[in-house]
Design brief:
mainly alpha, 3 helices, elongated
């Protein structure tokens, strides 16, 4: 019975902390845009040009080691 007097306030305090963190996250805009972040990774490569010098060098090295 004595453990209830310790665990019940601890549980209420923990729930209050999580509720306060959730309210803080909502007020600061953490949940404003839920659609863009999953799609952003799909469009990332189209904006940057592909490096050409490094790829050609690696292909040349691989071809030259196979010919030996």
């Amino acid at each position: 019975m004595a453990m209830i007097f310790i665990l019940l306030p601890l549980a209420v305090l923990t729930a209050g902390v999580f509720l306060a963190l959730f309210i803080w996250a909502v007020r600061t805009g953490q949940f404003d845009d839920l659609e863009t972040p999953p799609v952003r990774i799909l469009n990332d490569d189209a904006d940057r040009p592909l490096p050409t010098g490094d790829v050609e060098t690696r292909e040349t090295i691989v071809v030259s080691t196979r010919d030996c």
